[in-house]
Amino acid sequence: MPNEEEATPPDRTPTLTLSDPERKVLEALQAAPDVLQEETIVAERTNLAPDAARGSLERLRSKRLAIVEEESWTERSLTRRGQEARGHGLPERRFLAALERRGGTMTTEELGTEGLSGEEQAAAIGYLRRHGYLAEGIPFRWAASHPPIASELPEERLLELVATGAPEIDSALFDQLLRRGLVGAERHRLRRWLPSPEGRSLLLPVPGQPLVGALTSALLASGDWAQVSFRPYDVRAQAPYIQGARPHPYLAWLEEVEEILIGLGFEEAEGPLLETEFWNSDVLYMPQEHPARSVHDMFYADVPPGAALPEPLLDRVAAAHEGRPMPGESLPISPGWRAAYARDQARRPVLRSQTTAVSARFLARQPEPPFRVFCIGRNFRPDAVDVRHHIEFDQCEGILGSEGVTLRHLVGVFQSFAEALGIRELKIRPSYFPFTEPSIEGHVRHPQLGWMEVFPGGLLRPEVLRPLGIRVPVAAWGIGITRLALVSLGFNDIRDLFLDDHERLSGRPG
Amino acid sequence: MPQSNLSANRVLDLLPQKPSRAALEEAIFRSKAELASWEADTLSLEVTPDRLDLLSEGGLGLYLQGALGLRSGPVPPASTPAPLENPRAVVDASVRPLRPYFAGAILSAPAGVALDAGLLAEAIRFQELLHATFGWDRRAASLGLYPLERLRAPIRYALEPMANVRFVPLDGAGEVGADRFFQEHPLARRYAPLGRTGDHCLTLRDSDQQILSLPPVLNSRTAGEARIGDRELLLESTGTREARVAESVGLLLLPFVARGWSVRPLPVEYPERVDSGVSWISARSMSLSMATLRDIGGQVFGAADIEGWLAQARLGVAATEDGWQVEVPPWRPDLQTPVDLAEEVLLARGIDPQEALLPPSSTRGQRTPEGRFRRKVRELLRGLGYVELRTPALVAQRYATLLGRGEAIAVTNPVSEMYSRMRDQLQLSLVGVLERNVRHAYPQRFADVGPVVVLDRTAESGGRTRWHAGAVIAHEGAGFADAAALVDYVAGAFGALGVRAPVEFPGTIAGRGARLQIAGDRVAEMGEFSPALLSALRVPVPVAWAEIDLTALWPLVSREETP
Q: What is the pLDDT of residues A5-20, one digit of tens each?
């Protein structure tokens, strides 16, 4: 047989221990679970001294195994003096009768012959003067305009009610008579007990069987579990904390966006975070001296030189920038930026500042049209971090390439996406991006926030497409993903998108 | 986006009829300008970088004339003034290494009109805006306006010894030498790299040797200050980008042309050639075909409509066999190709969302296979009870130091120490998370699946982006076994079994670090953080860590994708 020490439960669940008297008392309550039992009855049934039974009941109550119902009431009665007053009349009544009998005036000496004690005389005189019957001064006589002599004073009525056990009485008047020693009050309390729902269902150990904490594999294997009782647990005690494992709110939201785009026929694309200026900007026809390519707008990285850029593409991009014909062609695509293209600058490593670089890399693989590609990715720009700005932010953008793609198809993508978000109203206005022409932006009407600029986009410029060898028109679009995320998630601070607070993320209460 | 405050009254003065405020706001909404506010006489506008012309009252006025249907077609050519002695400019060969390009024009007021305070203020404000934006803070191009009537042509642009240069700065009280000017004047100190080299500086002088300005810094107060009442002005631009220099002259014509001033060319003599100066101030001719417009706009419009929209955009238009010849004024440098003209037509017409079309062909949307794999790893980690994170990829130098990750790529221009390294391991982010959560109860289990960048000379940038899964397990009983079990579980879920070998990692207790290799590839690292590291982070419990290189694991398990 395992002893109780060995069976100490390994977990931290508080055990519920019952003393022998407590067990007996609970047994007695469980025997008649629906009957309120007085403490004396419980004491009798358990053969416990009344005090011991009462103590056990209280402890069961503190363990939430027993419930007590208390009933209390007051019993009123006449004192000996009250009984005499009821029989012979109250002192004030006897004083009034004497005064009336003596023709409305009575000396102190005469009063002394009326059988009233000194205390009764004082009580009677005080009462009659307070109620306007008796004038001030000696000898005693009626007050000038005294009230009519009632056949029954309120005090007399109260004595009668108390004597006959009437339930409702004037408590203020009762208190006056209590102070005069005419009536008495005694409080009674009755406590009756029931088992609580837990107490009713709690399995009590079989007398003589040991209590064990945990069921163990050894108990199961040996079959000894049949000879033991298990120590009950305090099921209301604080349970150990289970750490939640919820999806990160922003990641979960981004996945919803991904699902929408996949549903619209877009395929996911990825690209490197550390880029060259070539892929980050040059291929996208951003002029090399453009202010948005300064140290104020891009992060540069301290990295040893990497592999060479693809030379043929580099030549074509350089020609587009310089406004020269590309190798093998006779005419330039456009006047270009009319400045020399610096190949050294093209190799400089930068942290990606726009996910359009991912689209550029996709196009450089010269995919077979039709194609639709999206990328949700991190980008980096030097910015003071505050509620609205972060050095790291996400962009969601994509491209749509096929024979016959026009601006109307781009607006169709905006519209489909907006509808997937439950937004019906869309309007379009002009915009500008170095790599698209025409460039537009879609504004949607958010149910709470009104008109918001959400969709920038356009058709990729020939200066972008032709060096990459793309022969079909390509529409490029973006979604103001950060702003939408903040609105959708109810965040006011962009830093919340990187939320890493354990309690908020695990959903731990309190 | 470039922004400026414009005088509403000066814009409205250019409109033959006063429109309602709503009509005006709607017309601005349909342009590349955005009205931030309109209070009293102040219009606060932002424009896209290609439409700086809309940030001058003259430019916005010309646009609104067309957009509101009040006027259309090209701005009427200024009447040719009576032949005057045409001044010219001479560019000395000495400027070539520093700031080689020069362009200019002559502006003449209409009869009975002279430069007034409003026009002067508008021109100066627009000039400063162009310096900051189009001129790339004066580097590519900077402009100057001078009183032609107080100069004697020709003017000469040269680099000369500073010892020879004395002038009264526009905002100064007395004459100073160029040496002192470059030492003391704030603008001179700021733009010195653009306007001086060694003991020489750029100068613009007239033939009486008066200093007009020290390009691109400041005009002189004597011969270089345009004043109210002037009737003929010389406009010049110098810079390092030939096209920008020429186009900036075209842009600064706007305030004047919109108010009827006429423009004459300023011929420029370079050592080896003479530029007539005509191209800088003339409309250029471009062609637009119906096919280009149809391919971009997605529909066929009537020829008369198209011509109307081009005229509304204040462009000249003449029909040709397959489209139109379009005359583009010099203040529209954004229009360079037929595609640009097509956009102009579409924007003048307006883009109606009701005309949207679904894409012309169908495609199948999907995630990348590796993306699906990473998603499954995230699900596994969540299933194990790990709190999911999405941490920034830029991390503090301090964490790189604490973890001994000297190879993590440094940002050369960080905005703060907190974001000064690109992480090469997720642990660099996760230790920060541990540090920020010390006030919360333990156990804590965090996991992140995210990108890192590791040095790699075979990549064009010198670094390669890889995806890792990282986890930390922090509680009283946490230890190496927790980390090892996690790695085994994740790899095993994809059918990958590896061999664990001991490795010493900085920041990890000696003898309690390991690397998992599968088929010779390093796939994961794990260990137990050292007490020194935990003390530095003020973490009060043991922490086990694991880092799985998903980019390395993926090829090994790609056929066993489903756990």
A: 333 444 444 556 788 8
On the question of a cis peptide bond just before residue A325, with omega within 30 degrees of 0, the verdict is: no
Task: State if pTM tops 0.90.
Answer: no
β-bridge pairing A37-38 and A66-78: unpaired
| Cβ contact B460–A278 (<8 Å) | yes
Measure the CA–CA gap between A228 and B255, rounded to whole angstroms: 101
A415 CB within 8 Å of a chain B CB: yes
CB A49 within 8 A of CB A9: no
What distance in Å separates residue A8's CA from the closest CA in chain B?
A: 20
Element (DSSP H or E) covering residue B380: helix B369-383
Helix (H) or strand (E) holding A414: helix A407-420
Q: Does the pLDDT at position A54 exceed 60?
A: yes
- Helix or strand (DSSP H, E) at B319: strand B316-319
Strand ranges (E), A19-109: 37-38, 66-78, 105-106
Range A233-258 burial, b when 16+ CB lie within 10 A, else e: eeeeeeeeeebebeebbbbebbeebb
Residues A496 and A392: beta-carbon distance below 8 Å: no
Please indicate whether, in this complex, the C-beta atoms of A243 and B444 are within 8 angstroms of each other.
Answer: yes
Q: Which residue has the tokens 């076994």?
A: B481
Q: CB atoms < 10 A from the CB of B353, how many? A: 18
d(CA B132, CA B34): 19
Among residues A311, A299, A273, which one has the least CA distance to residue B462? A273
Residue the block writes with tokens 């892929």: A279
Residue B438: both structure tokens together = 């010390």
Gap between the terminal Cα atoms of chain A: 44
B105 touches B280 (CB < 8 A): yes
Instruction: Go through chain B and tell me how many residues it has.
Output: 563
- Average pLDDT value for chain A: 88
List CB contacts of A165: < 8 A, sequence separation 6 or more.
A76
For the cut 80, the answer to whether the pLDDT of residue A449 exceeds it is no
Q: Which of B295, B390, B395, B278 is nearest to B346 (CA)?
A: B295
Rounded to whole angstroms, the maximal C-alpha distance in chain A is: 151
- Measured CA to CA, the distance from residue A54 to residue A60 in angstroms comes to 10
Structure tokens at A345: 């600058």
Q: Is A247 on the interface with B (CB under 8 A)?
A: yes
The CA distance from B450 to A374, in Å, is 18
Report how far residue B142's alpha carbon sits from residue B187's, in angstroms, rounded to the nearest whole number: 13
How many CB atoms lie under 10 A from the CB of residue B316? 18
CA pair distance B143, B212, nearest whole angstrom? 12
> What are the backbone dihedrals phi and psi of residue A30, each rounded to the nearest 5 degrees, phi first?
-65, -25
Q: Distance between CA A28 and CA A193 in Å, rounded? A: 10
What does the pLDDT average to over A261-266? 94
Rounded-to-integer distance, Cα B9 and Cα A333, Å: 42
d(CA B344, CA B314): 10
Contacts of B133 in chain A (CB under 8 A): 291
Residue B38 pairs in a beta bridge with: B43
- pLDDT tens per residue, range B123-167: 999 999 999 999 999 999 999 999 999 999 899 999 999 999 999
Q: What digits encode the pLDDT tens for the residues B403-442?
A: 998 889 999 999 999 999 999 999 999 999 999 999 998 9
Using CA atoms, how far apart are residues A164 and A75, in angstroms rounded to an integer? 12
- Å from B385 to nearest chain A CA? 5
Cβ distance A406 to B242 less than 8 Å, yes or no, reads no
Query: Closest by alpha carbon to B18, among B64, B74, B73?
Result: B64
Q: Between these two residues, A17 and B304, which has the higher pLDDT value? A: B304
pLDDT above 90: residue B504: yes
Mark yes or no for CB contact A500/B389 under 8 Å: yes
| Neighbouring residues of A150: CB distance < 8 A, sequence distance ≥ 6 | none
